[in-house]
């Protein structure tokens, strides 16, 4: 996966915004104002993704490319090398899981706002 594919995939999800809150090098993707993915925009050597704590440990044991989250809560975040042999479909699944974990913690109002902005109600389009 390259940086363009990563960015496009993250932005394809409902309610996602991209920001550079940590400086010009760190590209951050958020849903409902909460981070679910980030990477170094210049090197794209790795990505940080949120992960269920039990699954995070399993992935670290199974894949040498998966390490505890760099500069993140090591219990809930993994850093995944983009230079390894992990297939794009697996990376996309992990991005989905990260997004879903963060989305699930949003308030009902935040979720409704995301759905309203991204999916027009049926019957209002002529």
Automatic annotation (TrEMBL):
<keyword id="KW-0238">DNA-binding</keyword>
<dbReference type="Pfam" id="PF04237">
    <property type="entry name" value="YjbR"/>
</dbReference>
<dbReference type="InterPro" id="IPR038056">
    <property type="entry name" value="YjbR-like_sf"/>
</dbReference>
<dbReference type="GO" id="GO:0003677">
    <property type="term" value="F:DNA binding"/>
</dbReference>
<dbReference type="InterPro" id="IPR007351">
    <property type="entry name" value="YjbR"/>
</dbReference>
<dbReference type="InterPro" id="IPR058532">
    <property type="entry name" value="YjbR/MT2646/Rv2570-like"/>
</dbReference>
<protein>
    <submittedName>
        <fullName>MmcQ/YjbR family DNA-binding protein</fullName>
    </submittedName>
</protein>
């Amino acid at each position: 996966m390259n940086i363009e594919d990563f960015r496009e995939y993250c932005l394809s999800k409902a309610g996602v915004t991209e920001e550079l809150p940590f400086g010009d090098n760190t590209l951050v993707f958020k849903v409902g104002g909460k981070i679910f993915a980030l990477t170094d925009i210049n090197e794209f050597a790795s990505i940080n993704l949120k992960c269920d704590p039990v699954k995070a440990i399993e992935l670290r044991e199974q894949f040498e490319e998966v390490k505890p989250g760099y500069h993140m809560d090591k219990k809930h975040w993994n850093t995944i090398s983009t230079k390894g042999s992990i297939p794009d479909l697996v990376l996309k699944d992990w991005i989905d899981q990260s997004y879903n974990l963060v989305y699930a913690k949003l308030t009902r109002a935040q979720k409704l706002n995301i759905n309203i902005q991204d999916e027009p109600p049926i019957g209002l389009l002529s």
